[in-house]
Amino acid sequence: MRRALVIALSLIAAGILNAQTDEQLLQDAIQAIRNFLGDQSITPLFTSEDKRVELFEGPFREFDFDWVPGYYGIKVRVSPPPIVVVGWMKTNDAWLPHVNTNLPEKSDDELLTLARNYASQNFPGWQDFPNWQGKIMARIKDSGYGKTVRSRSIAFAPYFVNSDGEKIMFEPAGCNVGIEPHEGNIISFRWWYNLKMTLPSDRLNTTLSPLEAEAIAEIAVRNWVAQQLAEEGYSIPNNIVFEATLADPKDPDQGWWGDSRLVVGATETSGLRLAYRIDKIEAKDANTGKVLEKWIYAYIDAHTGELLITPRKLCLLDHSLEMTGQRLPAFEMRSFYRWVPALGVILVSVFLIILLVHRAKRR
Q1: pLDDT by residue (tens digit) across 227-286?
Q2: What's this model's pTM, rounded to 2 decimal places?
Q3: 217: region left, alpha or beta (phi > 0 left; psi from -120 to 50 alpha)
Q4: Which runs of E-coded beta strand occur in 95-208?
Q5: Cβ of 280: how many Cβ atoms within 10 Å?
Q6: Residue 66: CB atoms within 10 Å
Q7: Is the sign of the CA dihedral 67, 69, 71, 72 positive or negative?
């Protein structure tokens, strides 16, 4: 009965969440999970599809699955090929009861070494990159079974160094390892490798200088904001100036990125590019110097100056940017309204699941 219910719910999710989901891809993804776990009897529940490029990681398509014994979830990449499991996280009851908390916690360096060894053996193509860096990104407290364990989330990212000695991050590839600190057991793993590195070495040296990139970013972001405002019937007052900072010393990723802020990656359509990541852009009142709005992480092509990725706006500050005497339009609310239909679908899906489970219990 449970198997039939899972299949029914998977088909509902596939039909509701994304009408374009290919049934054969779905079955191939399920088979990839069975092969990964070594259990052909498992029928996981398909819950969602992810193909939204957040920053510069390049195009991809992944399916998320639930109802896998011992796992909170499993992620399968279906594009680019091959179809393969790229992420998993064990449930607490699958590992926490078995941890010997009487053993002292391993040092951060020891955990980094253990995580790196696991990543190098389980990330396909680790040897494709000359350099990898690792960092403990978070400490996560897990409690239960009379124990408290502070596991670590460790990220690894590949990078190159050009002939000018500048560090260049490669965003289409990377991984994260979850590890418990007492025995060093791996409790989660997530990796992505969406594009191969195909840029020739001579394209890894910039045409634009950092100062030129900042100046271009100021103009490009101002024009982008002006276009957004024009759609709402606003314009930018003459006393507003835009200031871009390539490498913000206060940025939490300062040590991770290095001062160059260079990255190779791609949007959904751009193909591989070398770009500057601009840490922040601020809109200021030229008369008072007050920061009215702030954005982070604009990507500027290091050869052409094209604005490849528009920045993300932080929460409105106390002195919000006012356009012709009115506040900056709330773009976030327009984004929220676009999610309303999806929220309705989710509520309907939850209702259907409850109804099916109820009927199953009655039988």
Answers
A1: 988 888 888 888 999 999 998 877 877 778 877 799 999 999 999 999 999 999 999 999
A2: 0.81
A3: alpha
A4: 131-144, 147-161, 167-170, 173-179, 186-193
A5: 21
A6: 17
A7: positive
